[in-house]
């Protein structure tokens, strides 16, 4: 059985909050999602006991993950399907953590699919099971664009209307805790200001109110909005994506960005086509 897997990332190319389900204590969202080639590496081998190790892909240092969704996935699977799983799993993290890129959910999806195969169980229940593990896990069943409509309802977007390929991710030094941003959204009456090529994310205003550095980045993008085919915040942030119209002024923009935000970082990726 294959033991090395790619675990891909995502961006929300728009996001709208359409309700709240008290039963699940979660917001209902409507969002278009694109899967990116920026990915973690996951190594899985059989073992006498479960061992889950997270490694930073750049520094090679061990990472401490507070909410280990991999362990949660294995426990959920064993309880539901009456199996006993013992695996050694190493996750080499290249997807920046805490920026709305779905790295943890993607990791869980890879492990869940592996468990179906390992225990010879059909994956017909993937969408339902993944929803019980985490809201975004079902997005990573494959690499097709998705439409989120609610919480567990995820549809494949058949028509691929993205004309772009290269994408840059701007990552502030400060991250946005998802629960905090949603709590601010509940109390936030402000409407988002949008330029023609800026994506509509209804969590943008509370995210900017929480994260001053991210707010300043958005203001810089607004000032230079004619450079971009599309730009906006992904998920609840604090990651921001930009897609240039061309190549002529990319360098001057990045020079300005680095001088204004020396603690922020930049990642380059592509959309699956």
Walkthrough of the structure:
This protein is an alpha+beta fold. It folds into two domains: 4-156, Ribosomal Protein S5, domain 2; 166-270, GHMP kinase, C-terminal domain (Alpha-Beta Plaits). 28% of the residues lie in helices and 31% in strands. The chain contains seven helices and eleven strands. It has helices at residues 69-81, 103-118, 126-133, 178-187, 204-210, 212-223, 250-260, and strands at 4-21, 26-46, 51-56, 62-63, 87-93, 146-150, 154-156, 166-171, 228-233, 240-244, 265-270. Strands 1, 2, 3, 4, 5, 6 and 7 form a seven-stranded mixed beta sheet that branches. The chain is globular. The model has no long low-confidence stretch (mean pLDDT 87).
Q: Descriptors for this entry?
A:
273 residues; alpha+beta; Ribosomal Protein S5, domain 2; Alpha-Beta Plaits; seven-stranded mixed beta sheet; four-stranded antiparallel beta sheet; 7 helices; globular
């Amino acid at each position: 059985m294959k033991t090395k897997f790619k675990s891909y990332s995502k961006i929300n190319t728009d996001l709208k909050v359409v309700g709240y389900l008290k039963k699940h204590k979660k917001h209902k969202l409507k969002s278009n999602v694109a899967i990116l080639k920026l990915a973690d590496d996951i190594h899985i081998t059989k073992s006498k006991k479960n061992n889950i190790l997270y490694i930073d892909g750049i520094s090679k240092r061990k990472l401490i993950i507070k909410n280990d969704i991999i362990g949660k996935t294995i426990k959920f699977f064993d309880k539901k399907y009456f199996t006993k799983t013992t695996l050694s799993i190493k996750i080499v993290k290249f997807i920046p953590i805490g920026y709305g890129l779905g790295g943890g959910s993607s990791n869980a999806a890879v492990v869940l699919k592996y468990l179906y195969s390992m225990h010879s169980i059909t994956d017909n229940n993937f969408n339902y099971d993944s929803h019980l593990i985490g809201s975004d896990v079902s997005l990573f069943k494959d690499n097709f664009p998705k439409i989120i409509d609610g919480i567990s309802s995820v549809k494949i977007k058949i028509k691929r209307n993205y004309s772009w390929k290269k994408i840059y991710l701007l990552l502030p030094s400060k991250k946005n805790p998802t629960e905090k941003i949603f709590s601010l959204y509940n109390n936030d009456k402000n409407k988002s200001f949008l330029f023609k090529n800026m994506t509509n994310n209804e969590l943008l205003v509370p995210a900017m109110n929480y994260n001053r550095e991210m707010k300043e980045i958005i203001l810089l993008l607004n000032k230079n909005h004619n450079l971009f085919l599309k730009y906006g915040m992904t998920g609840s942030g604090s990651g921001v994506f930009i897609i240039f119209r061309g190549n002529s002024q990319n360098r001057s923009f990045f020079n300005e960005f680095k001088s204004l935000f020396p603690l922020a970082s930049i990642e380059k990726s592509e959309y699956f086509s």
